[in-house]
């Protein structure tokens, strides 16, 4: 039987056949072929041959290899022939499988490993005008795909235009009318301030809607969800009932009360998976009770494409073993275990207590939750030259005990597609030698990368000049997409012990270097589309020699913390907000924590006359920040701006006189080579060199980062 699945052969390119063959010449070889194999065979031959032909399934192959391999000391390779492999159950690799490589067969098309139940396009029949329906067996999923395009659950309001690569949190939106239980300090008008911290917990249970936005006559409202937007998260509530008083209630309370963030939430919500709202191309409705899947495909699409309903959340668990390789494979159509929240799992591939891992030249697409999870004391892990696209939550994550992790030259496009609990493409924690470099990250509903968010270290945890984390030479763009708030292209944080009035700052050091990155085009719903963001008093950050431009928030923010440096960055500031963020009492729970930072040899080119260096809430105590040898330039020029631009709303001269900062800084055109083409290297005649600022040419990062 032929299964139609769209090809992604172009990127990343396959390893050369000759190189692959040579690499595994001395390995014990086994073969897997979904079309022509048999699990009763030995797997020793690549083509059908009675008794010795290829295996048919992954489970049969792993069991067969365990039976037939003669020694764990010799490398073994499983060559996977082209085709699609529907994986169930999860494959567990353990100490019996050390030195195993799973490799796409040289010269074939890349094999596809799918966690979906397939419904052939031919099994759909017209139901009503442009609607089609087919029977299916199993449970409904939020993750349904037409070929390689993600379908969207029937929603209200509709997307402006379905592309198959859409974020489920994209607008337009409906607007909440009122709270179930308002109070003087928490109401629809935001009387409690920018953040209403005393909202009644009853407001986790539902809300009051505008008449007409929710319909009492929906036939199956209990199948529906409401996607509720907060500030830096969005979460789903499952519909329990709808009353004639225009009140909607959830089956389970939300994590956070509606109303806490009256401005940054925008009071937004989206209705999902309601049959009557199935009215736009690219939408589907799943009726689990009737075992029917309805959808509206593009015209004639079902003639060429099949439909895939994700059902498996984890494909491989690799535990307590070593020397494991995944090469030249494609992973598609994973589920999310119906979980949404702050958890790195489930992942398509999960590594635990494993040493010496390589994932190379693989594709991960149409992922329900996480792509790769590196957890529980894994060491010596390399993830390189892969492409990740259409990822529900994280593409790659690692745990806080991880050591020697290299994430290199991967391409990421589309993360946080469905789970919006502070998603990102890369979320790395670790304790030694974590290096993320030469990657291309784009299109996320929140951050591009999250670094840390873990138990942090003392200031002397590593020798001076060494780092736990190095984030180097990455191109990070199109972050946030106007969906959530308060994030950075590269977002670093510590742990809860580093916030509040009793914070112990001596153990808040992350030891991270962020250098030679291009971070651009970040947009939040209301606030906080930053470049590099050090949050929660995270300390020992060195942010240097980056290009930071076209952001709707600050280029760099050290939100409290100590021993933090911003050095020799090129900043092209287009927003009306602050250029650089410092401490405020929020991190300290109302108490202003001690801050120690240096901002030197940076170029700050400002294009909005309302922009300021600091914002009024940014403060410091104890030590005045060390700011010097910078170039500032204002285009267009405004005397009013210049008189108020510097911290505390003062002029350049007063800032220097009051704090002895910027004594060697100047206001002058830095002479970027080509602003229109976003080339922020400096011309040879720039004054920058006279005060020690180096020209940084990062055009190569833009051209050659990532694998695609």
Topology:
Elements: H1 17-23, E1 28-32, H2 58-68, E2 76-80, E3 84-86, E4 91-93, E5 100-104, E6 112-114, E7 116-119, E8 125-128, E9 131-135, E10 144-146, E11 149-150, E12 152-153, E13 155-156, E14 174-178, E15 206-209, E16 225-229, E17 233-242, E18 247-250, E19 268-272, E20 283-287, E21 292-295, H3 301-304, E22 307-310, E23 316-319, E24 322-327, E25 330-332, E26 347-352, E27 355-360, E28 363-367, E29 370-375, E30 379-384, E31 387-391, E32 396-398, E33 403-408, E34 411-415, E35 420-421, E36 426-428, E37 432-437, E38 440-444, E39 449-452, E40 469-472, E41 475-479, E42 487-493, E43 509-515, E44 518-522, E45 529-534, E46 539-544, E47 547-551, E48 556-558, E49 561-567, E50 570-573, E51 580-581, E52 595-600, E53 603-606, E54 626-628, E55 631-634, H4 639-644, H5 652-659, E56 666-667, E57 672-674, E58 679-682, H6 699-704
Organism: Clavelina lepadiformis
Region (Disordered): 1-21
Domain Right handed beta helix: 349-524
